[in-house]
Design goal:
Elements: E1 6-10, H1 17-27, E2 32-33, E3 37-38, E4 53-54, H2 57-65, E5 69-75, E6 78-83, H3 84-92, E7 97-100, H4 103-112, E8 117-122, H5 126-136, H6 141-156, E9 163-166, H7 170-185, H8 189-206
Parallel strand pairs: 1-7, 1-8, 2-7, 3-4, 8-9
Antiparallel strand pairs: 3-6, 5-6
The structure holds guanosine-5'-monophosphate.
The site of guanosine-5'-monophosphate (5GP) has 14 residues, from strand 5 and strand 6.
């Protein structure tokens, strides 16, 4: 059985990763989502185990010590990390999984999974991004500045990704991501190993 694709989606805070992911859930129901652990407090409407596993700093540090996280990063004063077991089991079962994580964590994943598909969602402009973060109404001025600084830093690291998708319109951005996933499934490397094995089996049966 072919392993599933590990898809990493990053992009600055406010670019619309959450919305893109929720549209993708409808358009690609076969895609599995990794639920991250975080020490940040839940926002209104967020549910433990659905949006995140909300954990205390002690609990999070315990996960780090027990190597239960594939990657983790500190972002705007809180820890965020990807539970390892779920990702590994999903890939082994042949299903694709998507991780919606920030850049430092994505780069750590890249060290371990060079075959991963790294997609960077960009805003049409930084001005537009600031309007989106401000418009969300969930952050203080200080936090907005902090998130904008992070955004600029993250955009500078875009070159480490395989694909850039501009989130000008949600549906169009989702179509581009779907096309990327389809193309990645068709990569020749995913078939060469199998073809070589099949050729060997045919040769064996002819001996
Ligand atoms: P938010 O607090 O807005 O939900 O997320 C803040 C940032 O943390 C976002 O850029 C989000 O993609 C990122 N993030 C969410 N989960 C993880 C994770 O498991 N690992 C890392 N490295 N970043 C994450």
């Amino acid at each position: 059985m072919k392993k599933g694709l590990l898809i990493v989606l990053s992009g600055p805070s406010g670019v619309g990763k959450g919305t893109v992911c929720s549209v993708l859930r409808h358009r690609m129901p076969e895609l599995i989502y990794s639920v991250s652990a975080t020490t940040r407090a839940p926002r209104e409407g967020e549910v433990d185990g659905v949006n995140y596993f909300f954990r205390s700093r002690e609990q999070f540090q315990d996960m780090i010590v027990h190597d239960a996280l594939l990657e983790y990063a500190e972002y705007v004063g809180n820890y965020y990390g990807t539970p390892r077991d779920f990702v590994e089991k999903t890939l082994a079962s042949g299903k694709d999984i998507i991780l919606e994580i920030e850049v430092q964590g994505a780069l750590k994943v890249k060290e371990k999974f060079q075959e991963g598909v790294f997609i960077f969602l960009t805003p049409p402009s930084l001005d537009e991004l600031k309007q989106r973060i401000t418009g969300r109404g969930t952050e203080t001025d200080e936090l907005i500045d902090h998130r904008m600084n992070e955004a600029v830093r993250e955009m500078n690291l875009m070159r480490h990704y395989d694909y850039a998708v501009v989130n000008d319109q949600i549906e169009a951005a989702c179509s581009r991501i779907q096309s990327i996933v389809t193309a990645e499934h068709c990569r020749i490397e995913r078939y060469l190993g199998e073809t070589a094995k099949e050729a060997e089996a045919i040769r064996e049966s002819m001996r």
